[in-house]
Amino acid sequence: SCLGDCQLHTSCGIQKCTTDFVSLTSHLNTALEDFDLEFCKALRAYSVCTYRNSKVCRGNLVYHSAVLGIGDLMAQRNCTKDGPTSSTNPETTHDPCNYSGDTEAREHQGAEKTPPTTYLFCGLFGDPHLRTFKDHFQTCKVEGAWPLIDNNYLSVQVTNVPVVPGSSATATNKITIIFKSYQDCTDQKVYQAMTDDLPAAFVDGTTSGGDGSARSLHIVERVSGRHIEMHARYIGTTVYVRQQGHYLTLAIRMPRELAMAYEESQDLQLCVSGCPTSERIDRGGHLPLPVLGKLLPWGKAASRPPSGYTLETATSKCHERMLVKDIYFHSCVFDLLTTGDANFTAAAHSALQDVEALHPSKEHWHIFPRSGGGGVGRDSKFFVSLGLLCLIRVAYL
Fold it and tell me: Which residue intervals define the domain Repulsive guidance molecule N-terminal in the entry (predicted)?
């Protein structure tokens, strides 16, 4: 596996330190009067850069050679350890706590052409509906606590509880996010949200990680108690958490190379592999019709689905917020028929908004169910109507 090497390239910035030193000194002439002064300033900047990377580079031979070389050169030129340092051109300065800077570092390491960073998106909302890093869309039971993400940089766990007695439908009422300690950019930070408790701070009361002025990790409150954003600049990651009704939604964007940096023991990640087959409610991407007579008990005198919605009224309600009849629209209809909770309409709508804000590929924002298969989709009206007919018949048995 390339995990070790991949992590080395993304976190150890010794090559960039060396490149900056060369660029600062290549134009200096030993015949000039201020040569020693400028050379010492460049050496101090080189030393500071290596110190910043000391933790992540400790197993790197190039790093240790550079540290020894700096000491030798400083002794030869009688440079003091304390004193002014050179500042590199702002356009080429590598900020170790800015993930985009890592791309710049790789470019400066001699790669002729560095491919742009590939970002992945994962989202969870509603009953619950999961969109994986591979853009697979699933509807799952996953009752209890489940890991969405668990890699070397970030862990996200959600807890799902039953929505309606007698139904397999669940929704998220708790989210725990752990930003793992990284270089000098941030200490480990834990965020936790629960129904009716969506704080704009980490559990230790802080709103940022590392140096507050650098804002390498910080929380932004968009709507008090309803919508917060977490921006982890040092790993190029953005997380949105919302509360809609009594339940929570989550959306995340993360660089592929970091999202895929995990050990074999971290193989259960819903965002990476999707839900286990035994936990899935949908069939091959199609949402099953909620034949509520089988799922939900109600009195014999009932004359309509206990959700209060028919296919027509649920479709109309969802169409008020979502004009495109993609999988988010169909998820909305499914949730209304299953639960009768109109807040799931807002959850589906905001989930689509989060996709549009965070998903890197506009052409993939909308996912449409394949035709056939009896799901809630273009060809499924007959099946859903059949399901409603069944539940009405059951009501009068």
Answer: 12-81
